[in-house]
Specification:
Shape: globular
CATH architecture: Beta Complex
Radius of gyration: 19 Å
Number of domains: 1
Number of strands: 14
Protein name: SET domain-containing protein
CATH superfamily: SET domain
Order of helices and strands: HHEHHEEEEHEEHEEEEEEE
InterPro entries: SET_dom, SET_dom_sf, SETD9
Strand order of the largest sheet: 6-7-5-10
CATH class: Mainly Beta
Oligomer: single chain
Helix content: 10-25%
Strand content: 15-25%
Domain SET: 103-277
Distance between the termini: 50 Å
């Protein structure tokens, strides 16, 4: 074997060790060896750990604080929107998250060997039943094309009803999200947040795609929960939602989001681990 082939093989092995933690067929093949990584519910409605109203309350509180902190109010129908606090304190988004929800999360190298990037609680305390993160990305209905975007893409999340969320921040997936996000602007209003594609997301919760799968040694401390954005969600706050529909014809149905909810109290320094599979029986 030549030196060039050995180098290529070594790179492939390193890539695979990281990729396999998100590669669906590999995870499925190993389910029998990792029973503790499964989450079981008797019916789809029981997949919700907390009520949607509680998710809305957390998101609205954070988004309002981010809007106040930015000092940027959109013009138009919501010009009379009055903040509760002065608009001159420009803080880091992580500080706003800490002051609003009581904790901070960040992307850092995972504590799992060869798992790549993970998500950690870096400050504060996460109580059980809190909305900890959001899974950003383009929303695809089961009948919509996603073949090209799914190739070598470990960030495609499948909801119980078959809806897919493409949380990849690179390549074709990145271009598709930017295109759809720009398409859905309502005049001066942004209806989604594309900053999750960068290293500095305006919504500090929008890092859920980097939460790694749990193991027998590292049990899950968060789980995924599907959340449909209600029609009453304020227009001026939708600019912080890190999701957008692939098709423009999906405006008749609520925007699908996926949040991560804490299964127990989580302290600063802990990495977030979730169940990639929920089995409905």
């Amino acid at each position: 074997m030549t030196g060039r082939m050995r180098t290529a093989l070594r790179r492939f092995r390193e890539k695979w060790r990281s990729y396999r933690h998100r590669f669906v067929p590999w995870v499925v093949f190993n389910l029998s060896k990792n029973e503790k990584t499964l989450r079981r519910v008797t019916e789809p409605s029981e997949d919700k750990v907390i009520p949607d109203e509680q998710v809305s309350q957390s998101l609205l509180g954070l988004f309002r604080a981010l809007l106040r902190n930015s000092g940027e109010l959109l013009l138009g129908a919501h010009a009379n929107f009055t903040p509760r606090f002065p608009l001159h304190q420009e803080q880091d988004e992580g500080d706003v998250l800490f002051q609003t929800l009581g904790f901070c999360i960040e992307r850092r190298p995972s504590s799992l060997a060869f798992a790549g990037t993970g998500v950690f609680v870096t400050r504060g305390f996460v109580p059980k039943g809190a909305t900890v993160a959001m899974y950003p990305g383009t929303i695809y209905q089961p009948y919509e094309p996603i073949l090209l975007q799914s190739i070598r893409n470990p960030f495609v999340f499948r909801c119980i009803d078959g809806v897919l969320v493409d949380g990849n921040d690179r390549g074709i997936s990145r271009m598709v999200f930017r295109s759809c996000s720009g398409r859905d602007r309502l005049g001066p209003y942004l209806t989604s947040d594309a900053s999750w594609l960068t290293d500095s997301p305006l919504n500090p919760l929008a890092v859920g795609q980097y939460v790694n799968n749990c193991s027998n040694e590292r049990p899950a401390n968060v789980c995924y929960q599907e959340y449909d954005v209600p029609d009453s969600f304020p227009l001026e706050l939708r600019q912080y939602l890190p999701n957008v529909n692939y098709s423009q014809h999906c405006t008749q149905r609520p925007l699908r989001c996926v949040v991560l909810v804490s299964l127990r109290d989580i302290r600063a320094g802990e990495e977030l681990f979730s169940n990639y599979y929920t089995i409905v029986r």
